[in-house]
Design a protein that fits this description.
alpha+beta; four-stranded antiparallel sheet
Amino acid sequence: MSREHLIVLEAMASPDGVLELVTYRERDATWVGIAKKDKGLIGAIGLHTGSRDSVVEASASIDRGWGVAFGAVAPGIVRAEVRNDHDEAFAARIVALPDGFDPDYRAVWGSAERCRERCDLIAFDAEGRTYDQSDPRVLGPPPSDADRMEAIRAHADSSMRYYATAYLRESEENRPLLESDMSSTANFLALLEGAALDARSMLARREKIIQQFVQQAKTDPFEPGVCSFCGRRPVAVWFQGPDFPDVRPNLGGGHGDGGVARVRDMPDPCRRRRPGRTGPARSEASSAQPQRKRHPDGTEPSARGLLVPSPDEPAVRSELGLLS
């Protein structure tokens, strides 16, 4: 980007000279970046250029122990700061974009000392809630109290079904871990449906809720869905992340190794591998080095978790082994 196309919004002194907060239009998008005074662009970030918009769109430049973070924040943000490796906070400034540029965002930037690997922009709304790049920007009216209560109830109900099914499939040694999970989650359901909100009433209702879900799991176990790769159901194993850092048994909650599928025994359509990886898959359940496979329709696995079909299906039983 040539210097004449940059619009300077602000300037500030830095250990490397005067820096400028700049904006410009390119490829039908608004870009916010930093430049050295009277020199070229150092870096920039485009707004509305990703798969989703975030409350905070930010990037950073770190040089010799100091850093500058820059980007944009959505409406509703009233202040911002920059955090370094030690979580120290440094004030950031929010600056309006010129007329005719992106109306959905305002530019933001700030510098921080003692930065080696971290120079993050953190934003705050009027209620003091914090936001960063992980928070998606949500349009439309906020949910009502009734909507929130229903969402809490549905999430707690689904979690309890998961924990109860895993509890029945776990060893006695590992069951206390799931009992703790069930107790914490059942507290919320007890407060939602109990006749009173005091601690004694909540604890009494909690135990009844736990037993209700355990009994339900005996006849109607929770199934997480279908294989994200081949579409079969139910699911036998969940591989979390692209590197197999954690192999979780079907509904086992990750607390034990019963029912964990060996990578080498997975049906070919369901094997997957991180692109470009040459070393062995990092899984205690396997010493094999599975190669990246394509789905029968020619598509490749995604970079997210994978659900593999159940060994209960005859077509899969001979191909998928389980560790005892």
